[in-house]
Amino acid sequence: MIAAGNVLALLAPGPKPRWSAGWLLRSRPGGLLVAGFGLDAAHLPVPPSLTLQEYDAHCAAAGLTPVDRFAAWDAAAYDDGGYAVSVHRLGS
Q1: What residues have CB less than 8 Å from 11, skipping those under 6 apart?
Q2: Closest by alpha carbon to 43, among 52, 34, 54, 32?
Q3: pLDDT mean for each 10 residues of the chain (92 residues)
Q4: Which value, to the nearest 10 degrees, does the dihedral of the CA atoms of residues 35, 2, 9, 52 take?
Q5: Where are the chain's structural domains?
Q6: How far apart are CA 41 and CA 31, in angstroms?
Q7: pTM of this structure
Q8: Which H or E element spans position 60?
Q9: Which helix (H) or strand (E) holds 84?
């Protein structure tokens, strides 16, 4: 599953984000969720509402394990910047 263009950050994450249940029901064990979204005002058209720590916690609660994180879709190394592309796997 690929979520590009700030999709997750714009879905009003809250304590139980709307995205986890629907997408995971369509995923299979071992499947990947690759999501990129802005983390600051320069990379997101609305005030940032989802931190990487919150995103990782939601993923963990949904049974996803982290695989990798990049600074952009070109797989540049993540540098704590304002945009991140995260890769998580369903199951272990």
Answers
A1: 17, 18, 19
A2: 52
A3: 73 58 61 88 78 87 90 96 92 70
A4: -20
A5: 2-90
A6: 31
A7: 0.81
A8: helix 52-61
A9: strand 83-90
